[in-house]
């Protein structure tokens, strides 16, 4: 029998368990969720604290509030034969400037635009403007560019959001860039000392398409060997000649020097990947004078040898 006035025990009379024990294990005092630290409070509840502030810096993505600097990396100046592709793709680098900091601007859409009427060029697909996204280095490289069929000079620009690169300087020509210089005639001949070689030295200058290049300057140079050599008309061991419409250039008359022997003449064009070499020979002239040497005015007893062999010097005219 319970005493009067005592309360019957019920659920509300039980002692509450600590919150951290309700699921059979204790909650950790500190845990990390992503980049937000979780802090345990004395009440057993948990709250998320704010992440630390990130240091401000350039976005380098084309979405910042800074300015941009464009630098032409490759492709200017250059020329191409009409109807053919330019050898070097146009390439530009974009730098994003925020305050005193700068870095390559990645993921920026750069538009390359041909600024031309008449002489000009097109990108793949017949387009005169293409958009290319910069890579992680802030560099954008345009696709292949083809010269149209009109000769002349023009420019291509690369731009973004009102900013633009220095113009790429391009030109279309009726001939390609000089590639090789080949000897076509005049090699392997000889001439007597003081005489002219019978055949002028001639070269053929061609472009990368094996087509002749007109108007190219060919430099002929005599390479003297052990005194043997020659001179061009007017004196001197060098001569410059322009190629004709067929890509041919012939040297001025070449005159053998004063010493017999073999030597060479080279023919080169600035920018060409090769040069031509002619092998030539200076010959001694016909015998004209015999001069006695040692052995004169000597005597010997009958039936004995003279002590000094006889010698003469033979010279040409």
Ranges where pLDDT stays below 50 over 5 or more residues in a row are 1-59
CATH class placement of the largest domain: Mainly Beta
Number of helices: 0
SS content category: mainly beta
CATH architecture of the largest domain: Sandwich
Distance between the termini: 162 Å
- Gross geometry: elongated
Helical content stands at: under 10%
Taking all residues together, what is the mean pLDDT? 82
Q: What is the total domain count? A: 3
Largest sheet features? 6 strands, mixed
Number of strands: 27
Instruction: Say what oligomer this is.
Output: single chain
- Rg calc: 45 Å
CATH-assigned fold name of the largest domain: Immunoglobulin-like
Order of helices and strands: EEEEEEEEEEEEEEEEEEEEEEEEEEE
Map the helices and strands.
Blueprint: E1 30-33, E2 36-40, E3 46-48, E4 67-74, E5 78-81, E6 91-98, E7 101-104, E8 109-115, E9 121-123, E10 129-133, E11 139-141, E12 145-147, E13 152-160, E14 163-164, E15 168-173, E16 178-185, E17 190-192, E18 202-207, E19 217-223, E20 230-232, E21 238-242, E22 248-250, E23 254-256, E24 261-268, E25 276-283, E26 287-292, E27 312-316
Parallel strand pairs: 5-15, 17-25
Antiparallel strand pairs: 1-2, 2-3, 4-6, 6-7, 6-11, 8-10, 8-13, 9-12, 13-14, 13-15, 16-18, 18-22, 19-21, 19-24, 20-23, 24-25, 26-27
Structure report:
This protein has 317 residues and is mainly β. It has three domains: 67-173, Immunoglobulins (Immunoglobulin-like, Sandwich); 178-283, Sandwich (Immunoglobulin-like), CATH 2.60.40; 287-316, no CATH class. It has strands at residues 30-33, 36-40, 46-48, 67-74, 78-81, 91-98, 101-104, 109-115, 121-123, 129-133, 139-141, 145-147, 152-160, 163-164, 168-173, 178-185, 190-192, 202-207, 217-223, 230-232, 238-242, 248-250, 254-256, 261-268, 276-283, 287-292, 312-316.
């Amino acid at each position: 029998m319970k005493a009067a006035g005592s309360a019957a025990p019920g659920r509300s009379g039980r002692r509450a368990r600590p919150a951290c024990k309700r699921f059979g294990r204790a909650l950790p005092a500190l845990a990390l969720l992503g980049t937000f630290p979780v802090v345990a409070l004395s009440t057993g509840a948990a709250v998320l604290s704010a992440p630390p502030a990130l240091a401000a810096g350039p976005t380098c993505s084309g979405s910042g509030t800074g300015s941009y600097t464009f630098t032409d990396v490759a492709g200017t100046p250059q020329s191409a034969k009409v109807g053919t592709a330019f050898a070097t793709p146009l390439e530009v680098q974009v730098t994003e400037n925020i305050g005193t900091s700068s870095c390559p601007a990645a993921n920026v859409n750069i538009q390359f635009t041909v600024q031309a009427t008449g002489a000009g060029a097109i990108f793949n697909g017949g387009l005169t403007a293409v958009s290319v996204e910069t890579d992680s280095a802030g560099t954008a490289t345009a696709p292949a560019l083809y010269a149209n069929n009109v000769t002349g000079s023009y420019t291509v620009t690369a731009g973004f959001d009102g900013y633009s690169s220095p113009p790429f300087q391009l030109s279309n020509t009726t001939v390609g860039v000089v590639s090789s210089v080949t000897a076509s005639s005049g090699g392997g001949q000889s001439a007597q000392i003081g005489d002219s070689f019978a055949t002028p030295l001639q070269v053929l200058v061609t472009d990368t398409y094996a087509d002749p290049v007109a108007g190219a300057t060919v430099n002929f140079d005599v390479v003297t060997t052990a005194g043997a050599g020659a001179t061009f008309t007017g004196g001197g061991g060098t001569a410059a000649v322009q190629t004709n419409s067929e890509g041919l250039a012939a040297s001025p008359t070449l005159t053998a020097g004063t010493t017999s022997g073999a030597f060479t003449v080279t023919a080169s064009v600035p920018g060409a990947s090769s040069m031509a070499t002619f092998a030539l020979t200076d010959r001694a002239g016909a015998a004209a004078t015999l001069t006695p040497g040692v052995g004169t005015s000597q005597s010997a007893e009958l039936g004995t040898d003279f002590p000094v062999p006889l010698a003469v010097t033979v010279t040409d005219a």
